[in-house]
Amino acid sequence: MRPEVLAPAGDRERLEAALDFGADAVYLGGTMFGMRAGAPNFEAEALCDAVKTAHDRGVKVYLTVNTLPRSKEIALLPQFLSEAVNAGVDAVIVADLGVFQTVRKLYPDLHVHMSTQTGIVNYATANVLYEMGAKRVVLARELSLDEIAEIRRKTPEDLEIEVFVHGAMCVSFSGRCLLSAYFTDRDANRGACAQPCRWKYALVEEKRPHLPMPIEEAPEGTYILNARDMCMIDHIDKLAEAGVSSFKIEGRAKSAYYVSVVTNAYRMAMDEYLAHPNDFQLPQWIHDEVFKVSHRRYCTGFFFGHPNACQYYENAGYIANCDVVGIVDRCENGRVCATQRNRFFAGDTVEILAPGKPPVTLQLNELYNGDGERIETANHAMMAFSFPCETEFPAHSIIRKPIAEDTEDKTIV
Predict the structure, then answer these.
(1) Intra-chain end-to-end CA distance of the chain, in Å
(2) Are residues 278 and 328 in the same domain?
(3) Mean pLDDT over all residues of the chain?
Protein backbone atom coordinates (compact mmCIF):
# COMPACT_ATOMS: atom_id res chain seq x y z
CA MET A 1 0.00 0.00 0.00
CA ARG A 2 1.31 3.42 -0.95
CA PRO A 3 1.70 5.40 2.30
CA GLU A 4 -0.41 8.53 2.61
CA VAL A 5 0.76 12.06 3.45
CA LEU A 6 -2.02 13.48 5.63
CA ALA A 7 -2.03 17.26 6.14
CA PRO A 8 -4.01 19.56 8.45
CA ALA A 9 -6.56 22.03 7.10
CA GLY A 10 -7.78 24.48 9.72
CA ASP A 11 -9.57 26.69 7.19
CA ARG A 12 -9.95 27.25 3.45
CA GLU A 13 -6.56 28.90 3.02
CA ARG A 14 -4.78 26.05 4.77
CA LEU A 15 -6.79 23.52 2.78
CA GLU A 16 -5.59 25.12 -0.46
CA ALA A 17 -2.03 25.05 0.85
CA ALA A 18 -2.23 21.34 1.60
CA LEU A 19 -3.68 20.63 -1.84
CA ASP A 20 -1.10 22.75 -3.66
CA PHE A 21 1.86 21.20 -1.88
CA GLY A 22 1.09 17.54 -2.31
CA ALA A 23 -1.16 16.10 0.41
CA ASP A 24 -2.81 12.78 -0.38
CA ALA A 25 -5.47 13.53 2.22
CA VAL A 26 -6.45 16.30 4.61
CA TYR A 27 -8.17 16.30 7.98
CA LEU A 28 -10.36 19.17 9.09
CA GLY A 29 -13.03 20.09 11.60
CA GLY A 30 -16.61 21.26 11.53
CA THR A 31 -18.27 23.64 13.96
CA MET A 32 -18.72 20.95 16.64
CA PHE A 33 -17.08 17.80 18.01
CA GLY A 34 -13.55 18.73 16.87
CA MET A 35 -10.37 18.88 18.96
CA ARG A 36 -9.31 22.29 17.63
CA ALA A 37 -12.02 24.67 18.77
CA GLY A 38 -9.66 27.61 18.24
CA ALA A 39 -9.21 26.96 14.51
CA PRO A 40 -11.67 28.63 12.08
CA ASN A 41 -12.98 25.23 10.92
CA PHE A 42 -15.79 24.68 8.39
CA GLU A 43 -19.50 25.47 8.46
CA ALA A 44 -21.77 22.97 6.66
CA GLU A 45 -21.76 24.80 3.31
CA ALA A 46 -18.02 25.47 3.48
CA LEU A 47 -17.45 21.79 4.24
CA CYS A 48 -19.30 20.82 1.06
CA ASP A 49 -17.14 23.21 -0.97
CA ALA A 50 -13.98 21.96 0.72
CA VAL A 51 -14.74 18.31 0.01
CA LYS A 52 -15.59 19.03 -3.62
CA THR A 53 -12.39 21.02 -4.09
CA ALA A 54 -10.30 18.25 -2.56
CA HIS A 55 -12.02 15.46 -4.46
CA ASP A 56 -11.62 17.33 -7.74
CA ARG A 57 -7.87 17.12 -7.10
CA GLY A 58 -7.90 13.49 -6.02
CA VAL A 59 -7.43 14.23 -2.32
CA LYS A 60 -9.43 12.57 0.48
CA VAL A 61 -11.06 14.46 3.35
CA TYR A 62 -11.35 13.19 6.93
CA LEU A 63 -13.60 15.04 9.38
CA THR A 64 -12.69 15.25 13.06
CA VAL A 65 -15.48 14.09 15.40
CA ASN A 66 -12.98 13.33 18.14
CA THR A 67 -13.99 15.25 21.23
CA LEU A 68 -15.44 13.47 24.25
CA PRO A 69 -18.99 14.89 24.09
CA ARG A 70 -21.18 15.30 27.15
CA SER A 71 -24.66 13.79 27.26
CA LYS A 72 -26.42 17.02 26.28
CA GLU A 73 -24.33 17.18 23.08
CA ILE A 74 -25.20 13.69 21.85
CA ALA A 75 -28.58 14.88 20.56
CA LEU A 76 -26.72 17.21 18.16
CA LEU A 77 -24.63 14.42 16.69
CA PRO A 78 -27.06 12.95 14.09
CA GLN A 79 -27.54 16.30 12.36
CA PHE A 80 -23.79 16.93 12.36
CA LEU A 81 -23.13 13.50 10.86
CA SER A 82 -25.86 14.04 8.27
CA GLU A 83 -24.12 17.22 7.11
CA ALA A 84 -20.80 15.38 6.94
CA VAL A 85 -22.26 12.56 4.85
CA ASN A 86 -24.04 15.03 2.56
CA ALA A 87 -20.74 16.83 2.06
CA GLY A 88 -19.13 13.55 1.00
CA VAL A 89 -16.33 13.23 3.56
CA ASP A 90 -14.27 10.08 3.13
CA ALA A 91 -14.10 9.24 6.85
CA VAL A 92 -14.75 10.58 10.32
CA ILE A 93 -12.12 10.54 13.07
CA VAL A 94 -13.70 9.34 16.34
CA ALA A 95 -12.48 8.90 19.92
CA ASP A 96 -15.67 8.18 21.89
CA LEU A 97 -17.32 4.76 21.71
CA GLY A 98 -20.80 6.27 21.90
CA VAL A 99 -20.02 8.44 18.88
CA PHE A 100 -18.52 5.38 17.14
CA GLN A 101 -21.70 3.36 17.71
CA THR A 102 -23.88 6.23 16.50
CA VAL A 103 -21.88 6.54 13.28
CA ARG A 104 -22.03 2.80 12.65
CA LYS A 105 -25.78 2.70 13.30
CA LEU A 106 -26.76 5.71 11.19
CA TYR A 107 -24.17 5.45 8.43
CA PRO A 108 -22.70 1.94 8.31
CA ASP A 109 -20.85 2.63 5.03
CA LEU A 110 -19.02 5.70 6.39
CA HIS A 111 -15.41 4.90 7.21
CA VAL A 112 -14.40 5.42 10.84
CA HIS A 113 -10.84 6.25 11.93
CA MET A 114 -10.21 5.80 15.64
CA SER A 115 -8.45 8.88 17.00
CA THR A 116 -5.17 8.93 18.91
CA GLN A 117 -7.37 10.12 21.80
CA THR A 118 -8.59 6.53 22.05
CA GLY A 119 -5.16 5.52 23.38
CA ILE A 120 -4.50 2.49 21.13
CA VAL A 121 -1.22 0.90 22.25
CA ASN A 122 -1.65 -2.81 21.44
CA TYR A 123 -2.90 -5.16 18.74
CA ALA A 124 -5.74 -6.52 20.92
CA THR A 125 -7.40 -3.11 21.08
CA ALA A 126 -6.79 -2.51 17.39
CA ASN A 127 -8.40 -5.83 16.53
CA VAL A 128 -11.45 -5.18 18.70
CA LEU A 129 -11.98 -1.81 17.02
CA TYR A 130 -11.57 -3.46 13.61
CA GLU A 131 -14.22 -6.03 14.51
CA MET A 132 -16.49 -3.18 15.57
CA GLY A 133 -16.09 -1.63 12.14
CA ALA A 134 -13.11 0.72 12.30
CA LYS A 135 -11.29 1.23 8.99
CA ARG A 136 -8.21 2.85 10.54
CA VAL A 137 -6.54 3.25 13.93
CA VAL A 138 -4.53 6.35 14.80
CA LEU A 139 -2.03 4.92 17.25
CA ALA A 140 -1.06 6.55 20.52
CA ARG A 141 2.02 8.75 20.19
CA GLU A 142 3.77 6.85 22.99
CA LEU A 143 4.62 3.79 20.84
CA SER A 144 8.02 2.80 19.46
CA LEU A 145 8.63 1.66 15.89
CA ASP A 146 9.01 -1.93 17.13
CA GLU A 147 5.65 -1.77 18.90
CA ILE A 148 4.00 -0.33 15.78
CA ALA A 149 5.50 -3.15 13.69
CA GLU A 150 4.09 -5.73 16.11
CA ILE A 151 0.63 -4.19 15.87
CA ARG A 152 0.92 -4.30 12.07
CA ARG A 153 1.90 -7.98 12.12
CA LYS A 154 -0.98 -8.98 14.39
CA THR A 155 -3.85 -7.05 12.81
CA PRO A 156 -5.74 -7.55 9.51
CA GLU A 157 -4.00 -6.20 6.42
CA ASP A 158 -6.96 -4.01 5.55
CA LEU A 159 -6.87 -2.21 8.90
CA GLU A 160 -4.99 1.01 8.16
CA ILE A 161 -2.45 2.36 10.65
CA GLU A 162 -1.92 6.09 11.06
CA VAL A 163 0.67 7.85 13.21
CA PHE A 164 1.67 11.45 13.88
CA VAL A 165 5.05 12.17 12.31
CA HIS A 166 5.44 15.93 12.71
CA GLY A 167 4.30 18.78 14.93
CA ALA A 168 3.53 19.71 18.51
CA MET A 169 3.55 16.99 21.16
CA CYS A 170 1.41 16.82 24.29
CA VAL A 171 3.09 16.02 27.61
CA SER A 172 0.03 14.00 28.61
CA PHE A 173 -0.76 10.51 27.36
CA SER A 174 -2.27 10.83 23.87
CA GLY A 175 -3.66 14.25 24.71
CA ARG A 176 -5.69 13.12 27.73
CA CYS A 177 -5.00 16.07 30.00
CA LEU A 178 -6.90 17.90 32.74
CA LEU A 179 -4.46 20.75 33.40
CA SER A 180 -6.20 23.21 31.09
CA ALA A 181 -9.65 22.45 32.50
CA TYR A 182 -8.32 22.74 36.05
CA PHE A 183 -6.50 26.06 35.60
CA THR A 184 -8.67 27.85 33.04
CA ASP A 185 -11.94 25.90 32.71
CA ARG A 186 -10.98 25.21 29.08
CA ASP A 187 -11.28 21.45 28.46
CA ALA A 188 -8.44 19.95 26.40
CA ASN A 189 -10.63 16.94 25.65
CA ARG A 190 -13.21 19.21 24.06
CA GLY A 191 -10.87 21.13 21.76
CA ALA A 192 -10.15 24.16 23.95
CA CYS A 193 -6.72 23.51 25.48
CA ALA A 194 -4.96 26.59 26.92
CA GLN A 195 -1.60 24.71 26.90
CA PRO A 196 -0.64 25.22 30.55
CA CYS A 197 2.14 22.67 29.97
CA ARG A 198 3.96 25.50 28.15
CA TRP A 199 3.87 27.82 31.18
CA LYS A 200 6.88 28.50 33.39
CA TYR A 201 6.27 27.22 36.91
CA ALA A 202 7.69 28.11 40.31
CA LEU A 203 7.20 26.67 43.78
CA VAL A 204 5.29 28.85 46.27
CA GLU A 205 5.20 28.20 50.02
CA GLU A 206 1.74 28.74 51.52
CA LYS A 207 2.77 31.44 54.02
CA ARG A 208 5.09 33.24 51.58
CA PRO A 209 2.99 33.64 48.41
CA HIS A 210 5.09 36.57 47.17
CA LEU A 211 8.35 34.63 47.21
CA PRO A 212 8.19 32.16 44.30
CA MET A 213 11.10 29.74 44.11
CA PRO A 214 12.20 28.28 40.77
CA ILE A 215 11.77 24.55 40.15
CA GLU A 216 15.23 23.67 38.97
CA GLU A 217 14.87 20.33 37.21
CA ALA A 218 17.64 21.35 34.82
CA PRO A 219 20.08 24.27 34.55
CA GLU A 220 18.35 25.53 31.39
CA GLY A 221 15.11 26.51 33.10
CA THR A 222 11.85 25.42 34.67
CA TYR A 223 9.55 24.57 31.75
CA ILE A 224 9.28 21.05 33.13
CA LEU A 225 6.16 20.03 31.16
CA ASN A 226 7.05 21.69 27.86
CA ALA A 227 7.54 19.12 25.06
CA ARG A 228 9.64 19.59 21.95
CA ASP A 229 8.04 19.26 18.52
CA MET A 230 8.15 15.90 16.77
CA CYS A 231 9.94 15.53 13.45
CA MET A 232 10.41 12.22 11.61
CA ILE A 233 11.46 13.64 8.23
CA ASP A 234 14.72 11.66 8.31
CA HIS A 235 12.99 8.35 9.04
CA ILE A 236 10.30 7.95 6.38
CA ASP A 237 11.72 4.57 5.42
CA LYS A 238 11.62 3.19 8.97
CA LEU A 239 8.01 4.29 9.45
CA ALA A 240 6.94 2.71 6.16
CA GLU A 241 8.78 -0.51 6.96
CA ALA A 242 7.03 -0.66 10.35
CA GLY A 243 3.74 -0.74 8.47
CA VAL A 244 2.47 2.84 8.81
CA SER A 245 -0.27 3.54 6.25
CA SER A 246 -0.74 7.27 6.89
CA PHE A 247 1.85 9.88 7.91
CA LYS A 248 -0.01 12.57 9.83
CA ILE A 249 1.19 16.16 10.19
CA GLU A 250 -0.11 18.01 13.26
CA GLY A 251 -1.20 21.64 12.86
CA ARG A 252 -4.82 22.57 12.16
CA ALA A 253 -4.28 25.73 14.21
CA LYS A 254 -1.03 26.65 12.43
CA SER A 255 -0.47 28.93 9.44
CA ALA A 256 -0.96 28.23 5.76
CA TYR A 257 2.78 28.75 5.35
CA TYR A 258 3.47 26.00 7.88
CA VAL A 259 1.06 23.65 6.10
CA SER A 260 2.64 24.42 2.72
CA VAL A 261 6.26 23.93 3.74
CA VAL A 262 5.84 20.88 5.97
CA THR A 263 3.44 19.12 3.59
CA ASN A 264 5.85 19.78 0.73
CA ALA A 265 8.78 18.38 2.73
CA TYR A 266 7.00 15.14 3.62
CA ARG A 267 5.61 14.83 0.08
CA MET A 268 9.14 15.09 -1.32
CA ALA A 269 10.54 12.74 1.31
CA MET A 270 7.83 10.19 0.59
CA ASP A 271 8.39 10.42 -3.16
CA GLU A 272 12.11 9.94 -2.61
CA TYR A 273 11.42 6.85 -0.52
CA LEU A 274 8.97 5.39 -3.05
CA ALA A 275 11.52 5.91 -5.82
CA HIS A 276 14.35 4.31 -3.80
CA PRO A 277 12.76 2.08 -1.13
CA ASN A 278 15.88 -0.05 -0.71
CA ASP A 279 18.37 2.80 -0.67
CA PHE A 280 16.58 5.78 0.86
CA GLN A 281 18.73 8.86 1.36
CA LEU A 282 16.93 12.06 2.27
CA PRO A 283 18.25 15.05 0.29
CA GLN A 284 19.65 17.73 2.59
CA TRP A 285 17.36 20.44 1.24
CA ILE A 286 14.27 18.46 2.31
CA HIS A 287 15.70 17.99 5.81
CA ASP A 288 16.40 21.72 6.02
CA GLU A 289 12.88 22.72 4.93
CA VAL A 290 11.25 21.71 8.23
CA PHE A 291 13.53 24.20 10.02
CA LYS A 292 12.14 27.06 7.90
CA VAL A 293 8.78 27.11 9.69
CA SER A 294 8.08 28.33 13.20
CA HIS A 295 8.90 25.40 15.49
CA ARG A 296 10.19 24.30 18.85
CA ARG A 297 13.35 22.23 18.91
CA TYR A 298 12.75 18.89 17.25
CA CYS A 299 12.86 15.35 18.58
CA THR A 300 11.76 11.91 17.35
CA GLY A 301 9.22 11.34 20.12
CA PHE A 302 8.84 7.77 21.35
CA PHE A 303 9.64 6.08 18.03
CA PHE A 304 13.12 4.97 19.10
CA GLY A 305 12.29 4.12 22.70
CA HIS A 306 12.21 6.27 25.83
CA PRO A 307 12.33 9.94 24.80
CA ASN A 308 15.18 11.16 27.01
CA ALA A 309 15.49 14.44 25.10
CA CYS A 310 11.86 15.32 24.39
CA GLN A 311 11.46 18.11 26.95
CA TYR A 312 12.31 21.68 25.95
CA TYR A 313 13.48 23.68 28.96
CA GLU A 314 14.73 26.96 27.46
CA ASN A 315 11.35 28.65 26.95
CA ALA A 316 7.82 28.05 25.70
CA GLY A 317 8.24 29.97 22.46
CA TYR A 318 9.02 29.07 18.88
CA ILE A 319 12.11 29.36 16.71
CA ALA A 320 11.43 31.34 13.53
CA ASN A 321 14.05 31.75 10.81
CA CYS A 322 11.96 32.96 7.85
CA ASP A 323 9.23 35.44 7.04
CA VAL A 324 6.73 34.97 4.22
CA VAL A 325 6.90 38.19 2.20
CA GLY A 326 4.69 37.28 -0.74
CA ILE A 327 2.65 34.71 -2.62
CA VAL A 328 3.08 34.26 -6.37
CA ASP A 329 -0.05 35.04 -8.40
CA ARG A 330 1.33 34.41 -11.89
CA CYS A 331 4.42 34.70 -14.08
CA GLU A 332 4.26 36.56 -17.37
CA ASN A 333 6.67 38.28 -19.79
CA GLY A 334 9.71 37.44 -17.69
CA ARG A 335 8.20 38.79 -14.47
CA VAL A 336 6.90 37.30 -11.24
CA CYS A 337 3.67 38.99 -10.15
CA ALA A 338 2.76 38.48 -6.51
CA THR A 339 0.84 39.74 -3.48
CA GLN A 340 2.65 41.04 -0.40
CA ARG A 341 2.38 39.34 3.01
CA ASN A 342 5.12 41.09 5.03
CA ARG A 343 7.30 44.14 4.44
CA PHE A 344 10.52 43.69 2.49
CA PHE A 345 12.90 45.80 0.42
CA ALA A 346 14.49 46.01 -2.99
CA GLY A 347 17.88 44.34 -2.72
CA ASP A 348 16.66 41.65 -0.28
CA THR A 349 17.66 38.07 -0.92
CA VAL A 350 14.66 35.76 -0.93
CA GLU A 351 13.76 32.14 -1.58
CA ILE A 352 10.84 31.03 -3.73
CA LEU A 353 9.36 27.65 -2.86
CA ALA A 354 7.27 25.94 -5.52
CA PRO A 355 5.51 22.62 -4.91
CA GLY A 356 7.75 19.61 -5.42
CA LYS A 357 10.96 21.50 -6.03
CA PRO A 358 13.92 22.78 -4.01
CA PRO A 359 13.67 26.50 -3.13
CA VAL A 360 15.25 28.96 -5.56
CA THR A 361 17.34 31.81 -4.12
CA LEU A 362 17.06 35.24 -5.75
CA GLN A 363 18.23 38.77 -5.03
CA LEU A 364 15.46 41.28 -5.79
CA ASN A 365 17.51 44.06 -7.33
CA GLU A 366 14.43 45.56 -8.99
CA LEU A 367 11.01 45.83 -7.37
CA TYR A 368 7.82 47.31 -8.84
CA ASN A 369 4.34 48.05 -7.52
CA GLY A 370 1.08 47.02 -9.17
CA ASP A 371 1.18 50.06 -11.48
CA GLY A 372 4.62 49.13 -12.77
CA GLU A 373 6.38 51.93 -10.85
CA ARG A 374 9.78 51.13 -9.38
CA ILE A 375 9.77 51.05 -5.57
CA GLU A 376 12.28 50.55 -2.79
CA THR A 377 10.01 48.74 -0.38
CA ALA A 378 6.82 46.67 -0.43
CA ASN A 379 5.31 47.99 2.79
CA HIS A 380 1.53 47.92 2.24
CA ALA A 381 -0.43 44.87 3.33
CA MET A 382 -1.61 42.72 0.41
CA MET A 383 -0.19 45.12 -2.18
CA ALA A 384 0.53 43.85 -5.68
CA PHE A 385 4.21 43.83 -6.67
CA SER A 386 6.45 42.31 -9.31
CA PHE A 387 10.08 41.73 -10.16
CA PRO A 388 11.97 40.45 -13.21
CA CYS A 389 12.83 36.75 -13.14
CA GLU A 390 13.70 34.27 -15.89
CA THR A 391 12.39 31.31 -13.90
CA GLU A 392 8.65 30.68 -13.92
CA PHE A 393 6.84 29.60 -10.78
CA PRO A 394 3.30 28.28 -10.42
CA ALA A 395 0.61 30.28 -8.66
CA HIS A 396 0.68 29.98 -4.85
CA SER A 397 4.45 29.52 -4.73
CA ILE A 398 5.85 31.10 -1.56
CA ILE A 399 8.31 34.00 -1.42
CA ARG A 400 10.19 34.12 1.89
CA LYS A 401 13.29 35.73 3.33
CA PRO A 402 15.53 34.96 6.31
CA ILE A 403 14.76 37.13 9.33
CA ALA A 404 18.06 36.45 11.11
CA GLU A 405 21.30 34.62 10.57
CA ASP A 406 20.47 30.94 10.85
CA THR A 407 22.70 29.44 13.54
CA GLU A 408 20.28 26.73 14.68
CA ASP A 409 21.59 23.21 15.12
CA LYS A 410 19.71 21.10 12.54
CA THR A 411 20.14 17.91 14.54
CA ILE A 412 16.91 16.12 15.46
CA VAL A 413 17.36 14.30 18.76
Answers:
(1) 29
(2) no
(3) 91
